[in-house]
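Course assignment 3, question 2. Fill in each field.
Student: A.L.
Task: Predict the tertiary structure for the chain below.
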Amino acid sequence: MIHVENLTKEFKMYKKTPGFIGAVKSLFSREAEIKKAVDNISFHINEGEMVGYIGANGAGKSTSIKMMTGILVPSSGKCVVDGIIPYENRQKNAKKIGVVFGQRTQLWWDLPLTETFSILKDIYDVDDKTFKERMSFLNEVLDLDEFMSRSVRTLSLGQRMRADLAAALIHNPKILYLDEPTIGLDVMVKEKIRKAIKAINKEYKTTVILTTHDLSDIEELCDRILIIDKGRLVYDGGIENIKETYGYMRTVEMCVKDIETAKKIDVAQTFELSAEDVITTVEGNSLFVSFNRNKISISDIVAHIMSKIQVTDMNIKETDIEEIVKRIYNHEVNL
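Answer field:
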């Protein structure tokens, strides 16, 4: 469905010497440097896949998405979307894709939602029968009926996001690009948006590319993630695989009776492990032990601590995807 091969995008940026002399000098000669926003990335996304596309601000994900949607032309490499080169066939490509930006809208601000959808129907040349079927389905999964007759300016953020998602899907696109679709939404509306995306993917096999900083969206919707950092693709694989491979740290929290004794327990020293493999901290009435599960078992840790002190309760926490990605951004994990 989407084939990206050695895709690169370079921007020419001009240096400016500060001050008045620098301003005058720049009128006659300017020194340029080349900035690689996207650096030789390759991947393939199949029809019906839901893929999380994530990276820190400035990592290059927006630039690569713009090349896939046909807004930008690559400096080199190849991008083919459903058999079309997007930047060479923008109009044809636009009929195959839907786009939702969390902080922007494609809706007409002063028009009732029904009129906005009618205009989009004509723009995308959707026949009456298909439009009626699509709106029936979208009403069902997004609960649009309660605000269909209201102007867009009167909608809450959650209602507008549901309307924006519906607007992007009126022409039944093969590919849906979602950029921060749940930003600023409360928990209930987020869950409604997620359920709708799942239903759309299941019913129509719509391929979904999701970019977001809310990693709970990724975990809820996607089985595969692409991580981009400094213009390069640093990870392409399953969420469970990245957790298994890089989420080797676990944390056990134990509520204890004698907190002063707990402060004296040094698990790393007892098992002759480094301070990076076992970290022991005390907070309130709880003893926390974060440990590398490849170096020591939880049964050894718990048995040792319970031989020293009375434990009244216990909780074990796995490293979540958000923590792993944060470590990747900070270059603490080598991929």
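Instructor remarks: The chain is about 35% helix and 30% strand. The radius of gyration is 26 Å.
Grade: pending
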